[in-house]
Amino acid sequence: MGIAVQISRHGGPEVLELVQAAAGEPGPGEVRIRHKAVGLNFIDVYQRSGLYSLPMPLNLGMEAAGVVEAVGEGVTHLSEGDRVAYASNPPGSYSEVRTMPAMCVCRLPDAISFETGAAMMLKGLTAQYLLKKCMPVEGLTPGDAVLFHAAAGGVGLIACQWARALGLQLIATAGSDEKCALALANGAAHAINYRRENFAERVQEITAGQGVKVVYDSVGKDTWEGSLASLRRFGLMVSFGNASGPAPAFAPAVLAAKSLYVTRQTLFAHITSREATQAMADDLFAVVESGAVKIHIDQRYALADVQQAHRDLEARRTTGSTILLP
Ligand SMILES: NC(=O)c1ccc[n+]([C@@H]2O[C@H](COP(=O)([O-])OP(=O)(O)OC[C@H]3O[C@@H](n4cnc5c(N)ncnc54)[C@H](OP(=O)(O)O)[C@@H]3O)[C@@H](O)[C@H]2O)c1
């Protein structure tokens, strides 16, 4: 038994409840993990509010790090006592202990702490596939300009640093001058406060009227039109989130003038096998261990204070990663 955070209806942070939950013996393909730290992600807000609707009651949380307590039949890549971290379905990481599928659980390198592991798996694997797998038709080469929204957030600060390591000119947007400064300090080549400035116009100025090859857009409703306007010919719009609400429906004809491409991506389509998950995690571990990407844990809360953590994330008061401590 251990404490877990559960919802039995959709709503605001007040629907998050602490319950006692049993973590049973792992079945085939499963492990039981005792968590040391838990990652907070914007997807948890969508699942709580009902934007993404899952069966109730629902234990929330998609990311954590801890120690393997028991291993089920057929699991060959993990042993009891291993230090591990994961981004994985089904939700349930907001807990002291849980039993779950082992497929996406990765052994944590000795040099990476539990807190860092919990702060980086979902966000870092997302930055990995965005920058390495979502390629515009003309390819990406060092020196190319890309636009990344909410760049001072959890995924954003990792993407800024990783893009710099790849030689990309990342143009960041963020919701305050302080957040813009943070993005610049973490490798963004330019930063735009999109609450004060028209970011699409600024992108045209910065790129001398060319536009960018890729826009990584997790803000959704508020940025959709400006993002399309920021792209160059044959550019790629990567929609991967809805922090301001879902992106609007659109007619393909709006893409015609610049022959644009649009894709809607999710991490969970990229981590559907053990091999694929481990290959992406190894790439992430390598950039973190090399120091090229530093994981910023800018907020820590007790697991019991999860309601406040959700309030702060939704109110745009956080930067970098946030962890919950069981
Ligand atoms: N599809 C995938 O595979 C995938 C995986 C991971 C994350 N995501 C998405 O990536 C985004 C970042 O995730 P994260 O967990 O790292 O969160 P985060 O970036 O730390 O927090 C979200 C940020 O979005 C910005 N934002 C803009 N408009 C907002 C609004 N109306 N309400 C709240 N926030 C707003 C805020 O930054 P500013 O104040 O700077 O605007 C806020 O800090 C989320 O949209 C998430 O859903 C998608």
Counting DSSP H or I runs of 4 or more residues, the number of helices is 9
What are the secondary-structure elements, in order, as H or E? EEEHEEEEEHEHEHEHEHEEHHEHE
Rg result: 20 Å
The main sheet comes to: 7 strands, mixed
Overall geometry comes to globular
Bound compounds, please?
Answer: NADP nicotinamide-adenine-dinucleotide phosphate
Poorly predicted spans: none
Proportion of helical residues: 25-40%
Summed over residues and divided by their number, the pLDDT gives a mean of 98
**SS strand fraction:** 25-35%
Structural class: alpha/beta
Q: For the record, give the distance between the C-alpha atoms at the N and C termini, rounded to a whole number.
A: 13 Å
Count of DSSP strands: 16
Structure in words:
The chain is of the alpha/beta class and 326 residues long. The protein is 29% helix and 27% strand. It is built from nine helices and 16 strands. It has helices spanning 42-49, 114-133, 154-165, 177-185, 199-206, 224-230, 267-270, 274-289, 306-314, and strands at 2-7, 17-21, 30-39, 58-59, 63-71, 83-87, 97-101, 105-107, 145-148, 169-174, 190-193, 212-217, 231-239, 261-264, 297-302, 321-325. Strands 3, 5, 6, 7, 8, 15 and 16 form a seven-stranded mixed sheet that branches. Strand 12 (212-217), helix 6 (224-230) and strand 13 (231-239) form a beta-alpha-beta unit. Helix 2 packs across helix 3 (154-165), helix 2 packs across helix 8 and helix 5 (199-206) packs parallel to helix 6. The longest helix has 20 residues, at 114-133. The model has no long low-confidence stretch (mean pLDDT 98). NADP nicotinamide-adenine-dinucleotide phosphate is lined by residues 41-43, 122-123, 126, 150, 152-156, 174-175, 179, 218-219, 222, 240-241, 243-244, 265-267, 313-314, 316, 318.
